[in-house]
Amino acid sequence: MPSDPLAFDPHRFRTAAAHYRAGRAPYPPALIRRVAEEVMLGGDSRVLDLGCGPGQLAIGFAYFAGEVVGLDPEPRMLTAAAEAALCLTPNAHFRQGSSYDLSPDLGRFRLVVMGRSFHWMDRPATLDRLDRMIETGGAVALFHDAHLDVPENAWRKRWKEIIEHYASGDPAREQRNTITWVSHKAVLLSSPFCRLEKFSLIARQISTTESLIERALSMSSTSRARIGERADDMTADLSALMAEIAPNGMTTEVLEWTALIARRP
Predict the structure, then answer these.
(1) Which fold has domain 17-263?
(2) What is the pTM assigned to this prediction?
């Protein structure tokens, strides 16, 4: 039985938008290239970045496609995306909308990508709509990143404890953490796009104290819009932690970035 969709709030990332690009780990170009090659993107291909945020995936895929459309409900995210793409990828365009606005009027696409956004949608309904919009041989690709259980990531336990403290009480976060929440893979396996293949890339990166604080503020559960003045307390707690564990202002983190490609049988 599919999970109930999270409550739709088109402006949940209103204040988080200013911190997203500086705080979130960027998707590796090598992984984007691998997906582009796997689905055989070309100069006549169209790509949809659904829930595009500040346009990280849209800009990355614009180098491999004829046109990329970025769709997001938050105007501040769209402004950030357009500014990032300016003079870099003129074939990437951004417009306001969400998965609930999907229609054939947007045209046909070879590939629809989503980065950290699928869980905000009515997932089965979204895939049904995309089935009418993705061309034969096309695909959906979900991008994700996770920290590996390695010694370099030991600091993450205490960082996450601070985040969980300030994020507590967020209904959307609590819903996703229940045992009844259905995984993306299970949803896809029950959809028209049930042939799954996953690619991943593991790498170290150096992050600054400032970028890790930006990351916390980029999360909707701990954004200023949600926790208000407590965001200053969270920032102070994170700064104190990082001063203890990374006195030079830099720390190493090891991430695995994944792309889950879903195609029709």
Answers:
(1) Rossmann fold (3.40.50)
(2) 0.96
